[in-house]
């Protein structure tokens, strides 16, 4: 049965050519992967991956969550559209994470410090930050456009820095 399904799928995609295959592969992203912070995946020769250095974590309380998204309007910060997530106890100051991505392309990274670890957004206590460090204010409630946060990841390891913001 599995062989039959694979043959039917390949026949359905055959008329698409190389561009169609690439698009089909791109749409086959596994979403909602909870991973550990394995820095070996960001070692020289690794990738594609993003090495994220987060500055300004306010306190060693609660949890820090780092999530990767495709850098598109349809997926940036959309519920259930995150690719990889690392969640770990907060450490005050600077924290570093390694987020593998499925392939070279355009991505965005969101970081949230759930200061009391309750799983809810407490605007007066929690902090956040995003790739490219866009301006976040009370009027846009921390959801800047994908255009402001998107960056390119090549076949190797791309390093970015995110500065946390708190009220």
Please provide a written account of the structure.
With 167 residues, the protein is α+β, with helices and mostly antiparallel strands. Helix content is 16%, strand content 34%. The chain has helices spanning 2-13, 17-27, 146-149; strands at 33-34, 49-57, 63-70, 84-89, 93-100, 105-114, 127-130, 151-153, 157-163. Strands 1, 3, 4, 6, 7 and 8 form a six-stranded mixed beta sheet that branches. A three-stranded mixed beta sheet has the order 5-2-9, with no helix packed on it. The radius of gyration is 18 Å and the shape is globular.
Give the key terms.
alpha+beta; disordered N terminus; 6-stranded mixed β-sheet
Helix content bin: 10-25%
Low-confidence stretches: 1-26
Rg, nearest Å: 18 Å
For the secondary structure, the number of strands is 9
The best one-word shape is globular
Structural class: alpha+beta
Provide mean pLDDT, rounded: 85
Order of helices and strands: HHEEEEEEEHEE
Number of DSSP helices? 3
How much beta, percentage-wise? 25-35%
The biggest sheet, with number of strands, parallel, antiparallel or mixed sense and barrel status, is: 6 strands, mixed
* End-to-end distance: 56 Å
